[in-house]
Design brief:
By secondary structure, this protein is α/β, with parallel strands linked by helices. It has six helices and five strands, in the order E-H-E-H-E-H-E-H-E-H-H. Strands 2-1-3-4-5 form a five-stranded parallel beta sheet, with helices on both faces. Helix 1 (about 15-30) links the parallel strand 1 and strand 2 (about 30-35). The longest helix has 14 residues, at about 15-30.
Length: about 140
């Protein structure tokens, strides 16, 4: 964990509405601080300046998503190259999913998604958070 209060997540998604939904889930569950952007250059700057524990990455532009992941996996950023990545797939082709899987993306959210899907995706990455937060929500 990067901080005492939770994980650091970078969310790269062009839709402010989708970004805000994920931020609200993370804030409500107190699991992570989400650095959000819809800009590829800003995402690269964040990855270059600080370590994050997870990336939630839009596949709206599959070419740019694969380029960023290639750079990440080649250790070109301050962030560890093997961090988990959650792919957001809005109408993405099978080829896009396969390309992202080849770059280590194993968890996907299909847009539109439910709030529960975000919770489940984060819980799959950090199972202890899922147990703790489920108990807290009861």
């Amino acid at each position: 964990m990067s901080t005492a209060g939770g994980y650091q997540i970078l969310m790269l998604e062009p839709s402010a509405m989708i970004r805000n939904l994920v931020v609200q889930v993370a804030r409500e569950l107190r699991v992570a601080h989400v650095h959000q952007t819809g800009n590829w250059a800003t995402a690269r700057r964040i990855l270059g300046e600080q370590r994050v524990d997870c990336i939630i990455l839009s596949a709206d532009d599959a070419t740019k998503a694969c380029e960023l992941l290639n750079e990440l996996r080649m250790s070109l950023f301050a962030t560890a190259p093997d961090i988990p990545v959650i792919g957001l797939l809005p109408n993405a082709s099978k080829g896009t999913r396969e390309a992202l899987e080849a770059l280590g993306v194993s968890t996907f959210l299909f847009v539109p998604f439910r709030i529960r899907d975000v919770f489940d995706a984060l819980g799959a990455l950090w199972p202890h958070l899922r147990r703790e937060r489920l108990q807290a929500l009861r």
